[in-house]
Design goal:
This protein has about 260 residues and is an alpha+beta fold. It contains nine helices and nine strands. A hairpin with a 5-residue loop joins strand 5 and strand 6. Helix 3 runs parallel beside helix 4. The longest helix has 18 residues. The termini are far apart.
């Protein structure tokens, strides 16, 4: 991404015997993250298919984020990456506490996938500092955000895109399968996010009837995330669940409720 890892990234991979095709490694002080790297992974996807590469590795300017592109040129979802790495670490007896940390933005399918492997998911507020704090508090050595901040606590105390990339390569080599197979082990649940303009930010716990509605939503197996924007007069409403039609109809009911109250 014409940033911090422009030299060390390719060097380490080449020393490990990887046939590396390097792009966006000519920083000039102005072109960092410019149409490249983890912020624009689809550009890497085109190159992966063009060069018939096994994998695409996209870092961001300060090299703390990682986005992976599989051999088909498809961007791997961050939650799927977290799930695959967590199960891999458990299989290698490298995961502490049989647990992983992710944020409230991670899809519930990740939580359910880890549950199938008897692994627990701790959720935090958005931000890798919150992930790191929970990892420390719960004595967990792996966590991250779906955006690509991945923290291997035994390797570094913050996100390190290159260290994460090496772990992904280790996982793929160990499995003997292509990236598209090993990093695509579950389907994400349908998710809807609506930003609703509001006249005032009444505390959510003071809105009469909201608890009842949310309890009904959760009893139906759906997950909700409702919060006010920190900078705008907007309420952000997120719903997700296995049944897309149910998610849509429930969102319509929620929006009608909030419009009446706010």
């Amino acid at each position: 991404a014409n940033g911090a890892a422009y030299k060390v990234g390719p060097t380490i991979l080449e020393e490990l015997g990887v046939d590396v095709i390097v792009v966006n490694n000519k920083p000039n002080g102005y072109n960092i993250n410019e149409q490249c790297g983890a912020l624009h992974p689809k550009n890497i996807g085109k190159l992966v298919t063009e060069y018939r590469a096994d994998i695409g590795i996209a870092l961001d300017g300060d090299a703390d984020r990682l986005v992976i592109v599989d051999e088909k040129g498809e961007v791997v979802d961050g939650d799927k990456l977290l799930g695959a790495l967590c199960v891999y670490l458990e299989g290698e007896n490298l995961l502490k506490g049989k647990s992983c940390v992710a944020t409230v933005m991670s899809n519930k399918a990740l939580e359910d996938y880890l549950g199938l492997h008897d692994l627990k998911l701790y959720r935090t507020d958005v931000g890798d500092k919150h992930v790191l704090k929970t990892m420390h508090d719960e004595s967990v050595n792996f966590g991250g955000e779906q955006s690509g901040h991945i923290i291997f606590g035994d390797v570094a105390k913050t996100g390190d895109g290159l260290a994460s990339a090496l772990q992904v390569l280790a996982l793929i080599l160990k499995s003997g399968k292509p990236a598209s197979a090993v990093l695509n082990s579950f389907d994400l649940y349908p998710q809807i996010l609506v930003n609703l303009h509001v006249n005032g930010k009444i505390p959510l716990d003071e809105i009469e009837g909201l608890d009842k509605i949310l309890n009904e939503i959760r009893e139906k197996g759906m997950r909700d995330l409702i919060r006010y924007s920190g900078t705008e007069n907007k309420l952000r409403v997120l719903l997700e669940g296995k049944d897309e039609k149910l998610v849509k109809s429930t969102m319509d009911e929620l929006i009608s409720f909030f419009k009446a109250k706010l």
